[in-house]
Amino acid sequence: MTQQRSSRRIAVLLEYDGTAYRGSQYQENGPSIQAELEASIQQLTGANVRAAFAGRTDAGVHALGQVAAFDIESNLRPDEFVRGLNHFLPDDIAVRSARDAEPSFDPRRDARNRVYRYAIETGPVRSPLRRNRAWHVGRPLDVPAMAGAAQALEGTHDFAAFAGAYEGSTRRTLRRCEVRDNGCGRIALTMEAEAFLPHQVRRTAGPLVEVGLGRMILDDVVALRDGAAPSSAQPAAPACGLYLVRVEYGEFAFDAPAEVGNGQDG
Amino acid sequence: MTQQRSSRRIAVLLEYDGTAYRGSQYQENGPSIQAELEASIQQLTGANVRAAFAGRTDAGVHALGQVAAFDIESNLRPDEFVRGLNHFLPDDIAVRSARDAEPSFDPRRDARNRVYRYAIETGPVRSPLRRNRAWHVGRPLDVPAMAGAAQALEGTHDFAAFAGAYEGSTRRTLRRCEVRDNGCGRIALTMEAEAFLPHQVRRTAGPLVEVGLGRMILDDVVALRDGAAPSSAQPAAPACGLYLVRVEYGEFAFDAPAEVGNGQDG
User: Fold this and answer.
1) Among residues B252, B245, B258, which one has the least CA distance to residue B55?
2) What is the pTM of this model?
3) Residue A131: which of A36, A62, A225 has the closest Cα?
4) Residue A58 is among the residues annotated as catalytic for this protein
5) Which residues of chain A have pLDDT under 50?
């Protein structure tokens, strides 16, 4: 007699180094986080499932706390999913935590808050140990000026200028847009919102660095905020500095250790 | 008429990610930091030179502040060496600073103090963004016990038990042997001495983790210190957690930015 396996929706918290991937979502022509996760699920359980992700991350973008969910018939405990999937996943992807979710749980639609961080380095020489982990600007930046321009973006605005191609409303509410000097030539931009537009963090980090270099001023950023043409905020900062730090839900939360990855503090 | 080029000894401060290399010194069968540096010098200046290093680092060991020196006939300014060599070096090696040195300068023999750091992570899940950057022990460690055992190693002792194969005196003076909890599951061991024995830091980190896990106690470490058999300290911690942080000389110093690499703070 075979033991009956229960049908469940499992949610996992993922950390990954996005350098080697075309992005989080399945891609025909290259490796993706989704394809690796689905392959590890198949190796662990034999089941061929589709995983849904909280947020799409582009090629080269990292995550400390991406959330994915999939349906599966299995009696494995959550900690067995963590150990088992990590055994099969490549060393640049890991499941940090797993838990059962409601059958209706949708990691993308149910998200109430997303936290992204963008890492910038100002030191004159590129750092080999931080390559693919931060945007090496390589010049001193006026952090107070950047912080002031960042703050002007908080609140509810039409962020069309800060978005890549997008059909639909470009009105969003930025709960937090904060620039911090972490010392040793490291600067971090942290942005929080229920939802972001495509490329919004990178197209915000780029102009803020222009402000830091003295090539743009607060008024230029305010003008972008107040009705400039779509996608007119330039440049888009490179993917390697961007981290999806955390996705927050209503009552749903993971039991997970503190962030230990490379997203810089603050 | 060709401009006369002056003969100089140039010293460079190096940062590297040692993951892809067989070690700092030239190896017949694989890539080395030395071979890459010498190749970049040849590409920049046309000269085929030999570079001498302050310390040998093993395969997979990293450096934030390795020092190398070479003789060359060139009129390039130090900042031109920095930019030029970094242009030709692979992205996992960089020259952080360069300067003229006395013709007698010997980066190995003239060193008065060396600082190594060993990075340990205790979180239950391996971190993709810290892979090849720390030893993932994956279990909680008793940091005060480790710190106490580390302190017992400070001072002048016969460190034969903590060394790999070595001919010659194994008496050394450890100026500093300190274990610190940097939070978020990160623990750093910092060791300072004028000179170290082969594998000494890794063969110290291994037993200290045993103490942290409760498998060894202070008395076991003291026994290793006080005349145990050569190489009897076990295990040797893996190479990926080790960083050569800094080499100090008498009056000779680099004009260099603060450490920004991945050697953890403290």
Assistant:
1) B245
2) 0.93
3) A62
4) yes
5) 1, 265-266
A193 to each of A111, A115, A248, how far by Cα in Å?
A: 10, 7, 10
Q: Which distant-in-sequence residues (6+ apart) come within 8 Å of B80 by Cβ?
A: none
All residues of chain B having their beta carbon less than 8 Å from the beta carbon of residue A130 are 260-262
Asked whether A222 and A152 are in contact (CB, 8 A), the reply is yes
Query: Contact B113/B173 with Cβ under 8 angstroms?
Result: no
Which band of pLDDT confidence, cut at 50, 70 and 90, is reported for residue B258?
Answer: low
Per the CB < 8 Å rule, is B184 touching A123? no
> Which of A86, A128, A260 lies nearest to residue B130, judging by beta carbons?
A260
Whole-angstrom Cα distance, residue A60 to residue A66?
14
User: Mean pLDDT, to the nearest integer, of B219-229?
Assistant: 93
Beta bridge partners of B173: B156
User: Residues B205-214: pLDDT tens digits?
Assistant: 999 999 999 9
Mutate to test the interface with B, among A93, A125, A186, A187 (most CBs of B within 10 A): A125
* Amino acid letter, B93: I
Give the C-alpha separation, A191 to A245, whole Å.
10
Q: Count residue pairs from A and B with Cβ separation < 8 A.
A: 103
pLDDT at residue B2, rounded to an integer: 55
Of all residues in chain A, the one with the smallest CA distance to B140 is A257
> Considering only alpha carbons, which residue of chain A is nearest residue B263?
A129
In the numeric block, which tokens belong to residue B46? 């046309």
ipTM attached to this prediction: 0.92
Q: Which of B135, B258, B128, B259 is nearest to B186 (CA)?
A: B135
Q: Which residue among A58, A92, A100, A158 is the active-site one?
A: A58
